[in-house]
Each structure stands twice: as C-alpha cells, then as structure tokens.
Amino acid sequence: MDFKTERNNVTTASRFLPARSLDKLYNFADCAGLHLIFGLNALHRNPDYSWNGSSALSLLKYSAGKKYNISWELGNEPNSYRTMVARTLNSSQLAQDYIQLRTLLQSVRFYSRASLYGPNIGRPRKNAILLLEGFMKNAGSIVDAVTWQHYFIDGRVAKVEDFMKTRLLDTLTEQITKVLKVVKTHTPGKKVWLGGVGPAWAGGTNNLSDTYAAGFLWLNTLGMSAMQGIDVVLRHSFFDYGYNHLVDQHFNPLPDYWLSLLFKRLVGPRVLAVHVAGLQRKPRPGRVIRDKLRIYAHCTSFHNHNYVRGSITIYIINLHRSRKKIKLAGTLRNKTVHQYLLQPLGADGLQAKSVQLNGEPLVMVDDETFPELKPRMLRAGRTIAMPPMAIGFYVIKNINAYACRR
C-alpha cells in the first residue's frame, strides 16, 4: 500500500485514505498485543522503472511523528506482477528496491533500526525461486527475515474432500525445503518466515475455507513449519478479505480462530521429536504411504500458568474416517493427561462454522470475554481415543521433561 501525508491525510495516486485510518490500524494492533508489519507499494515507479519511495518516506515521517513501532515490507508476491498487473520485476531491481527502502529507514531516525522483511514471494515455483535466488544474492543480508507465501489450493474450485488429502497437506514440506535451500546457500543462518498462508488462494471459498474443515490444513501448517525451523507463521487473514479469515463480519470467532487460540495457549516454541511405533508401513516400490494420523509434540507454552515447566503438549490430526487409539509409551506412560478435543458443532459437519471443545460449544461469553477453555482429564495410563476427522491437543502434566525445563 502506498501512502503520502498531506493535510492530515494519507493519500495514494488514485484515492485518499484518512490518516486516522492508519491510526486505527496501529491502535488496533497495539491494543491486541500484535506487532504491525506494514507492506509498502512496490509498484510506484519512476520513468526508469526504479522504485519511487517518496510516498513511503512521507509515511515513515508521519508514523515516526506518532512513534508507531512498525516493521516494514515492500510489495506482495513480486513473481506474480506479470499476471496480476501486466508488469514484470527482475531480481536485480527487486534487490535495489529493498536496498533503497533500507536507506529510507535509516534516514528517519525513529526507524533507523526498524525491522525489514521480504521479498514476500508467492508459492516457490520456478519463477519465484529464480526471483528469490537473485534477491538473496544481491540483498539477502539487508532483510531481518526472508518471507514467502503458501496457499494450498485454488479457492475457486475447492471441494471439502480436497482439504483432507494428505498429498495436499504435504505440499508445504516440499515448498519449505525449496526456500530453505536458497536461503542457506546465500545467507546461512538467516531466519525464514512464512509471511502469508491460508487454506486457499483466490480469496478462499465460502463455506469451506472458513469452516472446521480448513483446520486440518492450518494445524498441519503450524506443525510442519515448526519442525522445519520456520520461526514465524502469519495467517492470511484475520478479518474481511475473502473467506480465509479467522473472524466473521460480526467479529465472531470462526473455527480456525479457536484452533489458533488453543495453539497459542498450549504450544510452546520448543519442538520435540515424535516416534510413533506401529504407524509406519514399508511402502511397496514406487509407492508413498502418506499419513492420515499426524502427531506433533512441543514443550507446553511457558505463558500458560496452569502447567508447570517440563510439561509437554502433543497435538494430533486424525484424517481417518474411523476412531484411532494412541497409547503413550516410555516416560509418557502413566502420566495425567489434559485433553482439548476440537470437533465440528451442528448438522453441517466438516463445513460447520462453529466448534465444540470436549463436547461443549465454544462461544464468546460477551463481546470481550472468552469462554473458559476447560480440559477433560484422562486418568494416568489411559489410551487416547481420537474420533474420526478430529483435532486434539493433549497436555502431559508433571512429566518434568528436561528439554522443557529450560
């Protein structure tokens, strides 16, 4: 987005956006405890096709005057400009644009050390990878984290059955591997963020990417990303655009919001290895066995004061159409477990826009109050029974795991 301050307005070449709208955006993020990363317009160009940063500089000065703590990004999916706006941008020019933006940030004292992220390429296919290669070679050192986006399926043709295909879920691992290879080649140790992710591109699908079914893709994204060292995952979107959002037009939480809330409250950043005995089968030559039962483990979040350090959170996706039993073994055996089981609520089944937690509907108490997320206690040694097409979080209490005490 391209801004310029003028008479208390932030303007673009084609329309006016009141400065108070930027103020509202920042205040919303600040009030919610979020950090705002602002994406600037990369298509404001000079006659020689270099990036025109005049509007960006005006915005930086306006925001600095307000002391807004903002990080910055330039453009969105530059590899798609040809198809979206009939323009092209090569990697050398993209690198120069980011170098120019870094110079602008340094020229405004308040933002001289602000974080800069990019290049926010789209799904890393051939053209996107070539663009990323050139960018990392010429400007990889100036960004604080490398960003890219992943959407699983075309929202214009998606069907509910597609959201349960293990082949679709596994595409993310392949894409992460491609991006990490490029980044490690040019800037070893540089952080990589999934800077935009949603169930479906083209704005998602009504009554599908905003329903319970989308949760399988979302939770699997969080689990796979953590396992492969992706530090930050940014969900597209929170509100209003298309059907990938987390809340509806009345700000009522949709299924992926509740899933995200449970994840944030229960799952810490430290990833643990999972060994599942009896699950893997040796495939026949040329055949790949793709798991419909997906299990991830982390240290329990330190911010959850209901659990002492050393606790472990396991989260499970069961894509089978039958119940599956999981028995904890080794040091996990004979420990008390708290269950947080998510299932759809109502007659719409997988396409429900409401969910239940351990059999109780999840609804806001009022506009400002969350319901209590009550676990169901499973006695020590009890087998975990995962219903078909269900998502569950299981906190293993008082295990005092060494890796989770630090």
From TrEMBL:
GO terms for molecular function: hydrolase activity, acting on glycosyl bonds. GO terms for cellular component: extracellular matrix; extracellular space; membrane. GO terms for biological process: extracellular matrix organization. Belongs to the glycosyl hydrolase 79 family. PANTHER family: HEPARANASE, INACTIVE HEPARANASE-2. This is Inactive heparanase-2. It comes from Megalops atlanticus.
